[in-house]
Design goal:
There is one protein chain. This protein has helices spanning about 10-25, 40-60, 65-80, 95-105, 105-125, 135-210, 215-245, 255-260, 285-300, 340-350, and strands at about 270-275, 310-315, 320-325, 355-360, 365-375. By secondary structure, the protein is of the alpha+beta class.
Length: about 375
């Protein structure tokens, strides 16, 4: 039960009510006993102030629980003994109330039972035949009702604090998961967009370096394509920044893929074919298809050293099927889960309820097939 805090206004309010009622009882002369200027009255007031101060200090500075409870018991007993009106017996309800927050329900019930037992013992010792006195029986019953209400109020307050903590912990976990999801998304975007363009730039610069002396025209075309890749990379960076600012505008998928086609020149030949309409496909599905095609082409250029790459996309009423095929050197199927690019691609596709199939082998080229349902990623 550590960490639960009693309702702060209960103890000062109850002590203040007892103080006012006790002083009024003395000032009005409603009972036998010393007047307002007696030492017992000063002790009564000092005891109430100390009781409220101990409870406040314990809540603010988190004092040790058992010494705090024992101090409250001693001060409550002293105030009740010094009060001639008998109204201060209501302070007994504070003991199980405080104990509930510090030690739990069982201890609170035990303390409440001890309070009733203490009052009953006092009646047995000082008021023979008390059970025939309506006032004494009424006081005992009212104390019992007060204890029940105090324990019930403490239980409600503890449950409310526990629920608030659970909500805060849940919100913290959601924030952590959201941050992790966003980091993974940014990592995939950086890998898929910049990684693709940097690979293309690297390939073209290698071609320019190799053909610089033998075929200046081919080297010039490679440098021109490298510059174009740089422009595309900058465009992707700007688009990512706009996405972070929620200002992203998505170009048509067919035109974006068509920009990769390359028939002539010294580099690998890339053919792109798109059939069907994009209408009905949401942004998550189209973005996943684009990134998957980008990853397949990047792998063909970077790792497979392919001379021919074909990108085929078929958009139907039910699903989109993307196939990226190259004539490169291929790889062992077990390697398909090793790279971050393929892992990120699988994550993207699974998020839109799609499937990924990689058909490859050493020296056999690679065929990457992605199937995404038309409503993939929509809620």
């Amino acid at each position: 039960m550590a960490g639960y805090v009693p309702v702060p206004w209960v103890s000062p309010l109850l002590c203040g009510a007892v103080l006012l009622s006790g002083l009024y009882h003395l000032a009005a002369g409603l009972g036998e006993g010393p007047g307002l200027l007696a030492w017992s009255t000063a002790g009564f007031v000092a005891g109430l102030v100390a009781l409220a101060a101990v409870e406040t200090a314990g809540r603010r500075w988190r004092l040790p629980r058992w010494p705090l409870l024992l101090a409250q018991c001693a001060l409550t007993g002293a105030v009740v003994a010094l009060d001639t009106s008998g109204l201060s017996r209501v302070l007994f309800v504070l003991l199980p109330f405080t104990a509930y927050f510090a030690f739990g329900r069982t201890t609170s019930l035990v303390v409440g039972a001890l309070c009733l037992t203490g009052l009953l013992t006092g009646y047995l010792l000082t008021a023979p035949g008390w059970y025939r006195d309506t006032e004494h029986v009424s006081d005992l019953l009212m104390l019992a009702v007060g204890l029940v209400l105090a324990i019930s109020m403490a239980a409600v307050a503890v449950d409310e604090q526990r629920a608030r903590r659970e909500v805060q912990e849940y919100a913290a976990r959601v924030a952590q998961l959201s941050a992790a999801t966003e980091r993974n998304r940014l990592a995939r975007d950086i890998h898929d967009s910049l990684g693709h363009h940097l690979t293309a730039i690297s390939v073209q610069l290698e071609i320019a370096s190799e053909f610089g002396a033998m075929d200046p025209d081919a080297a010039g075309r490679a440098l021109a394509e490298a510059r174009e890749s740089v422009k595309l990379a900058l465009g992707d960076v700007r688009q990512s920044v706009r996405a972070l600012r929620e200002e992203v505008t998505r170009p048509a998928l067919s035109s974006a893929l068509a920009g990769w086609a390359r028939e002539g020149g010294s580099g690998p030949r890339v053919t792109v074919a798109v059939t069907g309409e994009e209408d009905g496909y949401g942004t998550p599905a189209l973005t996943t298809i684009y990134r998957a095609a980008q990853e397949g082409l990047t792998n063909a250029l970077r790792h497979a050293r392919a001379s021919r790459v074909s990108v085929d996309l078929r958009l139907t009423e039910d699903s989109a099927r993307l196939t990226v095929t190259d004539d490169g050197r291929g790889f062992a199927p077990a390697e398909a889960t090793a790279g971050f690019g393929l892992t990120g691609m699988r994550e993207r596709v699974h998020m839109v309820s799609g499937s990924v199939d990689i058909d490859t082998g050493p020296g056999e080229g690679t065929r990457l097939t992605i199937v995404v349902p038309r409503r993939g990623g929509e809620r």
